[in-house]
Automatic annotation (TrEMBL):
Pfam families in UniProt: SseB
Superkingdom of source: Bacteria
Protein name: SseB family protein
Source taxonomy: Bacteria, Pseudomonadati, Pseudomonadota, Alphaproteobacteria, Rhodobacterales
SseB protein N-terminal domain boundaries: 9-117
InterPro entries: SseB_N
Length: 257
């Protein structure tokens, strides 16, 4: 059983549970998927094998390379992409995802409208404002599913920052809200981190909720104040240099042939 199998089983066991459904789509977006191709990739162009049904056309994707080989009865050309990249790649094309067809408990057809919703959800960015907190307090009572989602999201942000603190903040404008303060963000990583926090809200079923994201250097006096009252989330460090995989940028997904 894989994490996607578990999320799919939970969704199938509770078809009226929106939280279970959102967790499945979050796992789908965050996980690595293996897209079955008709031929080896050429540059940034992919030629996926299509599966035609009465419900429309679907590309064939698997959450393990072994499952793809099992389906294809041996070796076959494929591309390894994240679910979010696939959603961006297929957005607007009327094509769905055939997940693990016939080779796993999570065998499931994700229709094209669900792919479009996922692409739109993942593509929306946060609003940007400039405001500095004046008072900091420990975080209030927040849903456990949000804290768990934040922890999981930040655990995947390897190398993008040192740590983050969750606090209840009052701003110079008089506004009060929960704030996730990110310490020492990597150059240019602010938007990706803010988007990850927004996704934690959305996939926790709390899209209407508010959670500010702010960025501070460790040398800023604010960082010491945050450490005294905030709930700390550690962000993993890079253990070694990692090459950039083709198709890893969600704003520039591969092209379909």
């Amino acid at each position: 059983m894989t994490p996607l199998d578990d999320a799919h089983a939970a969704m199938e066991a509770a078809p009226d549970d929106d939280a279970a459904r959102l967790r499945f789509y979050e796992r789908l977006a965050d996980g690595e998927l293996f897209l079955l191709l008709t031929r080896e990739p050429e540059g940034d162009a992919l030629d996926p094998r299509l599966f035609e049904t009465s419900q429309g056309a679907f590309v064939l994707v698997f959450d393990r390379a072994e499952r793809l080989a099992d389906f294809a009865d041996g070796q076959a050309p494929f591309a390894a992409l994240s679910g979010r990249i696939l959603a961006a790649m297929l957005d607007g094309k009327g094509i769905g995802l055939a997940l693990n067809p016939g080779v796993a408990p999570s065998s499931f057809l994700v229709p094209s409208d669900a792919v479009a919703w996922l692409a739109e959800t993942l593509g929306q960015g946060p609003d940007e404002i400039e405001a500095r907190p004046t008072e900091l307090h420990p975080p209030g009572d927040l849903p456990e599913r949000l804290l768990t989602a934040l922890d999981a999201k930040l655990a995947t942000a390897t190398g993008l920052a040192r740590m983050a603190y969750l606090v209840w903040a009052s701003y110079e404008t008089g506004v009060r809200s929960h704030m996730l303060a990110v310490i020492d963000p990597a150059f240019g990583a602010e938007r990706a981190l803010a988007r990850a926090v927004r996704e934690a809200l959305v996939f926790s079923g709390l899209e209407a909720g508010a959670l500010d994201v702010a960025f501070f250097d460790a040398s800023d006096a604010m960082a010491a104040r945050l450490a005294k009252v905030g709930l700390r989330f550690d962000i993993p460090k890079f253990e070694a240099a990692q090459p950039v995989a083709p198709g890893s940028d969600p704003d520039a997904p591969p092209k379909l042939r």
